[in-house]
Amino acid sequence: MPSDRLPGLPSDPLSRLPGLPSGPLSRLPAALRDVPYDGARHPGAAPLPGRHPYDVTAGANCQLYAYAVLRHFGRTVPPLRSAELWADTGATERAAPPRPLDLVLFDAGEVPGRPAGYGAHVGVHLGPDQVLHLCKEAGRPAVWSYADFTERARYARFLGAKRVRETAVGRP
Questions:
Q1: Residue 104: what pLDDT?
Q2: 20 or 135: which leads in pLDDT
Q3: Who contacts 46 (Cβ-Cβ below 8 Å, separation ≥6)?
Q4: Distances, alpha carbon 138 to alpha carbons 38, 60, 65, in Å
């Protein structure tokens, strides 16, 4: 059975940040704790002048936020939109069951004429029944259970999980 741990990280990937109060969000650096939701700030969007493309301090959508969290933990994801992420096999691989720091995708179900994953919501699996994500409804980063997602029609289907490869296949 696969471990629910990433090599070199504690079972709770956010526990390595000492000196902060308990709780997953409180253990993230400030720049990742208070990010406002901004649907126009997505992977591939032009970065704000003078800022890194993964700088989320001025706002982000769910994907850009999830990628910034992974980047904080040393994992780099190319600027893939959700359908591209779901189809990708170079930088990521499908993961079942999800482990901490795997990307998890939710949607409302298949849409005729659209690829799988199109418009999917992306979060970061933290551990058993905990997903860190950013959405319009919450407005700021939040940790929800998988049941919290299924209670909302737009997130009712758990599409699956993607694990960032240690070394991206076919990428420089």
A1: 98
A2: 135
A3: none
A4: 12, 13, 13
More confident residue, 49 or 91: 91
Whether the per-residue pLDDT at 97 is higher than 70: the answer is: yes
Q: Rounded mean pLDDT of the chain?
A: 84
Question: What pLDDT does 166 receive?
Answer: 80
CA 163, 6, 30, 131 torsion: positive or negative? positive
Q: What is the DSSP string of the chain?
A: ---SS-TTS-SSGGGGSTTS-SSTGGGS-HHHHSPPB-TT--TTSPPPTTS-TT--TT-B-HHHHHHHHHHHTT----S--HHHHHH--SSEEEESS--TT-EEEEESS--TTS-TTTT-EEEEEEETTEEEE--TTTSS-EEE-HHHHHTSGGG-EEEEEEEE-SS-TT--
Handedness of CA 94, 41, 101, 138 (dihedral sign): negative
Which pair of structure tokens corresponds to residue 9?
């990280």
Q: Which among 47, 38, 36 has a CA at the least distance from the CA of 79?
A: 47
The pTM score is: 0.83
